Amino acid sequence: MKVKEFRAYLHDFEEQVIIKGVEDGIFGKQMMISARRGKLDSTKFGQLLGSQFEYTESIVIDYYGLLKKSTGFVAKLNSVEEIEAKAAKAMIVHFASVKDAHIVKLAPDLIVGFPPFKEYLIKVRNF
C-alpha cells in the first residue's frame, strides 16, 4: 500500500467506521485522556497517522499506542480558561477492537482495503 492510498483509506476509515461506530454505540468507552503528546507522535508511525482528525465531539482513537485526538477533544481542552488542562474525559476507540464484521456493517465498501491497511499499520509500527 502506498502512502497516498493509505491516507485516503485512513480518512474514509475514520469517518465511515470509527465515527459512525461511535455515533451508533458500537465502539467507545469513556476514559480520562491525557492532553500530552505521546511518545509515538514524533515517530514515522505518528507522522503517517497524524495527531488529530476532524470531528466536533470528543473522541480519541488508539492506534496501537498512538492516541489520535479529534478536533472536538482538542477544543474541549482549550476551552478551559485560567488553568492548563492535563486531561479530559473522552470516548476512546481501540483500533485493535475493530473487526471485519464491524466494517461490513458500517462501510462495506472498505472491507476489501482493510487487511492491507492493517498490515501496513503494523509494518510501520514495527511490531
Report on the architecture of this protein.
The protein is of the alpha/beta class and 127 residues long. The protein has one domain. Helices cover 43% and strands 20% of the residues. It contains five helices and five strands; from the N terminus they run αβαβββαβαα. It has a five-stranded mixed beta sheet with strand order 1-5-3-4-2, with helices on both faces. Strand 3 (59-63) and strand 4 (66-70) form a beta hairpin. The chain is globular, with a radius of gyration of 15 Å.
| Structural class based on helices, strands and sheet pairing | alpha/beta
Order of helices and strands: HEHEEEHEHH
**Strand order of the main beta sheet, please?**
1-5-3-4-2
Largest sheet: 5 strands, mixed
Which overall shape is indicated by the principal axes computed on the Cα atoms? Answer: globular
Measured between the Cα atoms of the first and last residue, the distance is 17 Å
Helical stretch count?
A: 5
Provide mean pLDDT, rounded: 92
Uncertain segments are none
> Which value, in Å, is the CA radius of gyration?
15 Å
- The percent range for helix content is 40-55%
- Please tell me the total number of domains: 1
The count of DSSP E runs of length 2 or more, i.e. the number of strands, is 5
Strand content: 15-25%
What characteristics describe this protein?
127 residues, alpha/beta, 5-stranded mixed sheet, 5 helices, 43% helix, 20% strand
Fold topology:
Blueprint lengths: L2 H21 L5 E6 L9 H6 L2 E2 L5 E5 L2 E5 H8 L8 E8 L5 H7 L7 H12 L2
Parallel strand pairs: 2-4, 3-5
Antiparallel strand pairs: 1-5, 3-4
